[in-house]
Amino acid sequence: MAYKSFSMELAGRTLTVEVGRVAKQANGAALMHYGDTTVLCTATASEKPREGIDFFPLSVEFEEKMYSVGKIPGGFNKREGKASENAVLTARVIDRPMRPLFPKDYRNDCSLNNLVLSVDPECRPELVAMIGSAIATSISDIPFYGPCATTQLGMVDGEFIVNPSQEVWDGGELKLTVASTREKVIMIEAGAKELPEDKMIEAIYKCHDVNQTIIAFIDKMVEEVGKPKHEYTSCAIPEEMFDEIKKIVPPEEMEVAVFSDDKQTREENVRQVTEKLEEAFAENEEWLEILPEAVYQYQKKTVRKMILKDHKRPDGREITQIRPLSAEVDLIPRVHGSAMFTRGQTQICNITTLAPLSEKQKVDGLDPNVTEKRYMHHYNFPSYSVGETKPSRGPGRREIGHGALAEKALLPVLPSEEEFPYAIRSVSETFESNGSTSMASTCASCMSLMAAGVPIKKMVAGISCGLVTGETDDDFVLLTDIQGLEDFFGDMDFKVTGTTEGITAIQMDIKIHGLTRPIVEGAIARCREARLFIMDTCMKPAISEPRKEVGKYAPKIIQMQIDPQKIGDVVGQRGKTINALIERTDVKIDITDDGNVSICGEDAEKMAEAKRLIEVITTDFYEGQILEGEVINIKEFGAFIEFAPGKEGMVHISKIAKERIDHIEDVLTLGDHVKVICLGKDKMGRMSFSIKDVR
C-alpha cells in the first residue's frame, strides 16, 4: 500500500492518520497522531475460521509502554508485564462498540492491537486508540459494518469539554465516552458526579454529533485507501435444519421449555429438548456437530418473539417489574462491614475493609495524575455462582470491568481523606448469578460501606435495562431488570447507577448496530425509576444511613497536625524515632508532607499515648512545662530523662531531691518513670529540668 496521510481538526487539535508507512503486513494499520500522542493501531484476521467454536473470536489489546511517558517500568524485570487495569478497561471499551459491527456468522480469529508510543497529556491515548481501531478495521479487508467513531466528554463548572486533557478528565465532573455509527449510538461508558438524567442525555448526543464528523473523515480514508472486503466462510445454521427442528420441537413446546422463573428448571427443560433432537439427528453427524448452537438460536428466536409480540417475559414478569428483592447487613462476623443484596437469582455479598492511608494501592501507569488509589472495588465471579465446575484462574477482563463499574458508581459519594482518613477496599463475592451482578454489586457495596461506618454522602443503587427490537426503529420493548436469558438473547444491557439526585455511572453493551434516541432516553428514565424503587423498598429498610462510628474490629484513626518543619524530628535519622514510637505504642503512623499525622490502632490508650509522644517530640521545651519520662542514663553530675523517642533532657544532681544527695543511684535507677518541670535555660543556654520542683 502506498503511503498516505490524512488530517482533520478535532476539538481544537489536529488528528493525523498515516497509512502505508508502518505495519504493512497487517490487514489494516493506522499510525495515529493527536497532538504529540502517537498510537499504532492494527487490525489482523486469520484466513480461515477457527473450528469448533460458536462465537466470534475477537481479541482487543491496549498496550501501555512506559517509554511513552519517559519512564522505566517498576519491579525487578524492568519491562512491562501483564496489562494494567486501565489497559484492560480501555480494551473493553474498544471491543464493546466494534464487536456488533462484524458479521454474526464470522468465525475467523481477529485481533485489534493498539500500541501506545508517546503520550501528550493534552490528548488521551485511550481516545486515540478507540478511533484508530475503527480506522484500521474500516480500511482493512476484514468484513466490518462500520465505520464507527468515539468521542469523550468532560465537564468543568457545568460546561462540556470535548476530548478533554488528562487533567480535566481526572478532575472534572463527568467522564463520558460515546461511540456511534452514522445513525445511532452504539456504546456509552460514563462516570459522573450525580449528573441529572436530562444533562446526561444532552452530553451523550453532543458526543454523537462530534462522532459524525469523525465518521465522515473515516469514509474519506476508506474511499481512497480502503481494501476490498475478503470473502469468508459463513458459520450460520442452515435454514433446512431449523425447519426440521421445528417439526420435532414445535414453537409452542419450546415456549413451555423456556418459560420459567427458575434458571435450573429452564436449563433442565432445554437439556431435555436437546436430547430429543440428538436422538432425531443421530444419523446426521454434520447437524449433530452444530446442534448446540442451533438450539441456542431457537431459544433466542422464541424468547424474542414472546417479549416483542406478546410482551411475555420468560419468568412471567411485567416488562417494568423488578424481581423479588432482599437485603441484609452484618452477616459476616468480625469483618469491618458486610452486606448481602439479592435480586431474583442474583446474589452478591460485599465485604468492606478499612486500613490506614498508607495502604492505598500504588498505580504505575501512563496517567501522571493517578499514582495511587484510595478506594478499591474488587469483584469475583466463581463458577459455582452459575452451577458450573471449573478451577479459579484469578480475575479476568469481565471481573475487572465489573469491579471498576461498581467502583466508579460509588466514588462520587465517598468522603474525602480529610473527612475519613482511611483506605477502603470493597470486595463483591458473587454467590449466585442470573443477570446484572455488577448492579447488585453496587447496591451491596453501598450498604456494606454504610455498615462499616464510612460516611458516604448519599445512597447509590443500580439496575440494568434490556431491549428487544423488531424490524423497524420504532418497534422495540424495554425490559427493566434483565435476567441472564434476556441478556443473552436480547439486544442491550444498559446499566445505570446513581443517587436520588442523578447518575454516577453508565455502562451500555449492545448486540445490534446502534440505539435510537427514544431507546436511550427510555432506558435512562426506566433505570432511574427502578433504582429509586430499590433504595426505598429494599436498601433503606436494611440500613438507612452510615453508622456513626467504624466497627469494633476496624482500625481506629486519630489525626493531628504538626509543623511540617518538625516532620524530620518525628521520623528521626533513618526512621529511628518513628520506628521506636511504633514499637512502643503498637500503632501505625502515617505523615504527609504538609504535616498531617494519622495514628492508626485498635487500643485507644496506646493511640492516645502515641499522640502525646508526638506532641512532646514536636513541641519545644518551655519554662513551667510538666513532662513525664524514663531515666535512661545516670552520670555523676545528673540523670538523663527520655520524654519521647529522640527527645531527652538532663536533671542536675542538685535538682533531683529536696534534700542533698551524694549519689544519684540512691534516689534513681535506670528505667524509673519520673515527672519533671522545665526551668528554662541554664547559663550555657541549655534547657534545665527539675524533679524536686514538681508540684
State the gist of this model.
Its cofactor is Mg(2+). The chain is an alpha+beta fold. It contains 15 helices and 29 strands.
Measured by DSSP, the beta-strand proportion falls in 25-35%
- CATH architecture annotation name of the largest domain: 2-Layer Sandwich
Tell me the domain tally.
5
Overall pLDDT: 93
Which percent range fits the helix content? 25-40%
CATH superfamily of the largest domain: GHMP Kinase, N-terminal domain
Structural class category = alpha+beta
The CATH class of the largest domain is identified as Alpha Beta
The strand count comes to: 29
Q: Determine the N-to-C terminus distance.
A: 95 Å
EC number: 2.7.7.8
Binding site for Mg(2+): 487, 493
Subcellular location: Cytoplasm
Family: Belongs to the polyribonucleotide nucleotidyltransferase family.
List key phrases describing it.
elongated; 695 residues; Arc Repressor Mutant, subunit A; eight-stranded antiparallel beta sheet; six-stranded mixed beta sheet; PNPase/RNase_PH_dom_sf; alpha+beta; magnesium; single chain; 5 domains; Ribosomal Protein S5, domain 2; Polyribonucleotide nucleotidyltransferase; 29% strand; 31% helix
